[in-house]
Batch of 2 targets.
Target 1
Amino acid sequence: NAGVTQTPKFQVLKTGQSMTLQCAQDMNHEYMSWYRQDPGMGLRLIHYSVGAGITDQGEVPNGYNVSRSTTEDFPLRLLSAAPSQTSVYFCASSYSVADTQYFGPGTRLTVL
Amino acid sequence: GQQLNQSPQSMFIQEGEDVSMNCTSSSIFNTWLWYKQEPGEGPVLLIALYKAGELTSNGRLTAQFGITRKDSFLNISASIPSDVGIYFCAGQLRGSQGNLIFGKGTKLSVKP
């Protein structure tokens, strides 16, 4: 198993550009989530999904969209990037919301 | 949003020393988790706690779920240089959908 994979590992955007952060897992996990990590802030939940076709907002959803068309993939979209979205983004998955979450290696995003 | 207060924020210790860190909240949690994050990597689960009063060990690591369900501690005995990293507590609130709330982390530095 590859576990949770994220691409790209690094990305630089200009303000207003759009992009999609990719997340995939091969463990047949139903629950997937996106977090952002900022210095001194810990990890904060952006969006999550309890299964294909179901998504919901976390603590800091503004400026981000998600979709879950398959069990394996959970992409995070930035429609119009802002400097405040400069952060490290982690995707995680688990069998259910109550089970241990496994994290991907992260995407470091800089918005100029 | 809900807060997890994690302390200390950082620790600088000598190899061989014992380490203790804790998380507290004004809210009641169903689950407490402790993660370790190394530079450039995603968090990795160290210990999961599911019952009030539960004391669990993983090698040199010991964690406990507080009786009040509002706190947890993590101890590391006989620290070694590879213990360096950021340690996060995380919890699932009672009555919530089960999404994790993270503390802000304890950065551990170990001097050989």
Target 2
Amino acid sequence: KAGVTQTPRYLIKTRGQQVTLSCSPISGHRSVSWYQQTPGQGLQFLFEYFSETQRNKGNFPGRFSGRQFSNSRSEMNVSTLELGDSALYLCASSSKKDTSAQETQYFGPGTRLLVL
Amino acid sequence: AQSVTQLDSHVSVSEGTPVLLRCNYSSSYSPSLFWYVQHPNKGLQLLLKYTSAATLVKGINGFEAEFKKSETSFHLTKPSAHMSDAAEYFCVVRGNSGGYQKVTFGTGTKLQVIP
């Protein structure tokens, strides 16, 4: 089975721009979660999607949004980029059958975003 | 409330010596616990997980961890370090909170292996 894939792997943007990151989960996985990793804050949960619906959200401003498509692929969008948004954005998928299930998450390689 | 504390931000060991990476957690519910490893410029790879079965969990690459409820700990160990083990390790707790899954990552422990 192919693993979680994320595109693009690297991205450079300037302040004020917006960016869209993509995540394709492992085949058959219906849950996709997004995380932001920075040296200062570590790994922080952004949001989780299950069956095209956002099921859980971390403490990030509204500039961060996402969606999930019927094929379980997910996109994350950040508008009005700030320097502090520079980070590694990780996507993880799991095969859980319902929102309360505890299933192992499998991570993609991440998208490294640099905001200048 | 749910939290994870990785007690050491950096650990340095000599190749061939044992590895101990410490993790303490708190959770209102019976949690699942995980250890992930991240090599430079890579995503996270699952090492092992505890989900209320056996308290001693064996993972990949010779790593294992023991769940000790009385001590609220889930320390990661390996009998003999290899150069390829040099990476950052994250302890993660997942638990139900209001019908949703709450995931909390530790701050990570960087393992250095000295030849």
